[in-house]
Amino acid sequence: MPSKHSRQAVSRVFRVALISGAVLSGYHLARLASAYLAERRRPSAFPAERAGDLLNPLRSVFMPARRTLRHFHLAPGQTVLELGPGPGYHTTEASRAIGSSGCLLCIDVQRGMIERFDARLREAGVGDNVRAIVGDAMHLPLRSATVDRAFLVTVLGEIPRSEETLTELRRVLADGGVVAIDETFRDSDYVRIGKLRSMCDQAGLMQIAHHRSPLGYTACFRRT
Fold first, then answer.
1. For 49-58, how does the pLDDT look when each residue is reduced to its tens digit (9 = 90+)?
2. At what angle do helices 111-124 and 91-98 cross, to 10 degrees?
3. SS3 for 79-133, per residue?
4. Are 219 and 196 in contact (CB under 8 A)?
5. How far apart are CA 21 and CA 92, in angstroms?
6. Diameter of the chain measured on Cα atoms
7. Strand locations in the chain, DSSP E?
């Protein structure tokens, strides 16, 4: 039977291990929280070298592209702007929705992301109705009043000056044009619906729809 001193020694080791584990867990949690807050303070585009993360198979289970796009009301023959397409997770479905008579303009600020985007779409055999462009969301390389629909999926919060982007989106939308903005709670760049409504109102965009989901929302705004 262990002596009293032996039991006390084991008890001390056990307590030290628990304290060390708690400190280590707290350290990692603090680092995660710090990274999250830093991202909130300094909006930036999702890095091109991590593009594969956006194609995680679990995403198609919890956030299938077709389910997200159904709120965007894409139709054959439309000219559609996808801002911040990443590696093209939603692009294939959007291309099918507008058909061969439509045109899908995909603009991303990172050339590396557009290169990954092009390679993936070639592999998927996506048609000729998609055009990839390297461009700045705050200075869209498009003529005014030329876009029927625009959509952004968890992108707006990554743009340093979101208000300028919304003003640019209004500029390129044709009469009656609609922009759809999809946000998810888990995203560190999540934009609250109240803030989005206020920014869109200032940019001359009127809300016409709001669809909630377990992970976030989709809001649609029309050019006024």
1. 776 676 677 6
2. 60
3. EEEEECCCCCCCHHHHHHHHCCCCEEEEEECCHHHHHHHHHHHHHHCCCCCEEEE
4. yes
5. 46
6. 87
7. 79-83, 103-108, 130-134, 147-153, 173-184, 205-213, 216-223
Token duo for residue 169 = 């989106």
In angstroms, the Cα distances linking 126 to 63, 90, 200 are: 21, 12, 32
Centre a 10 Å sphere on the Cβ of residue 40 and count the other Cβ atoms it contains: 12
- Alpha carbons 113 and 69: distance in angstroms, whole number: 21
Rounded-to-integer distance, Cα 59 and Cα 17, Å: 38
Q: Determine how β-strand 130-134 pairs with β-strand 147-153.
A: unpaired
Which range of 2-6, 124-128, 191-195 scores highest in mean pLDDT? It is 191-195
pLDDT tens for 122-155 read: 888 887 899 999 999 999 999 999 999 999 999 9
Amino acid letter at 50?
A: R
Q: pTM of the predicted model, to two decimals?
A: 0.77
Q: Is 136 exposed, middle or buried (0-12, 13-18, 19+ CB in 10 A)?
A: middle
Residue 14 DSSP one-character state: H
Q: Which DSSP category does 145 fall into?
A: T
pLDDT in tens, 69-104: 999 999 999 999 999 998 899 999 999 999 999 999
Residue 123: other Cβ atoms inside 10 A: 9
